Amino acid sequence: MFSLDYKSRLPIYEQLRQTITRMAAVGALAPGEQLPSVRALAQELGVNPNTVQKAYQILEHDGLLVSMPGKGSFVSEDVTVAQRQREEALQQLREAAHSALKCGVAEKDALGCVSEIFRGGNEND
User: Fold this and answer.
1) pLDDT tens per residue across span 87-109
2) Which of 56, 69, 72, 125 sits a CA distance of 20 to 30 A from 36?
């Protein structure tokens, strides 16, 4: 379910945060769905439980997860969280497009880059 790139320069907790965010955004994790316990996921991934805990804490701070003491962590039922994240992603894309334009990147090259990412190539999370 969860996979990590141990060769990536991106910290493991950030990779995990991005994976869970992406899964929630595309519906692979449904609102209200329980995530694996910190200990179980850490064991499954072969990482320190503190790493998983850090990712869960950030996701809870972002409003994507809700933790219930003694019960676990659940995907937030608040659909506006996912909507807000999509809006933020679009804003970041706009800013990147403006930056590319200022640097002289051709529209064709920029669109090609975006298309490549959406087709699953060149994933540099």
Assistant:
1) 778 888 999 999 999 999 999 99
2) 125
On the 0-12 / 13-18 / 19+ scale of CB atoms within 10 A, 96 is middle
Could you tell me the CA-to-CA distances from 60 to 56, 65, 81, 89 in Å, in that order?
6, 4, 11, 18
Does 125 have pLDDT greater than 50? no
Alpha-carbon span 2 to 17, nearest angstrom: 10
| SS3 category, 73 | strand
The pLDDT of residue 1: 73
End-to-end CA distance of the chain: 17
Note the pLDDT of residue 48. 96
Distance CA(53)–CA(13), nearest Å, equals 8
Task: Provide the residue ranges of all domains of the chain, joining segments of one domain with +.
Answer: 12-77, 80-118
Q: Which two tokens stand for residue 55?
A: 């990712």
Of the options 3.40.50.720, 1.10.10.10, 3.90.870.10, 3.40.630.30, the CATH number for the domain spanning 12-77: 1.10.10.10
Q: State the CB neighbour count (10 A cutoff) for residue 68.
A: 9
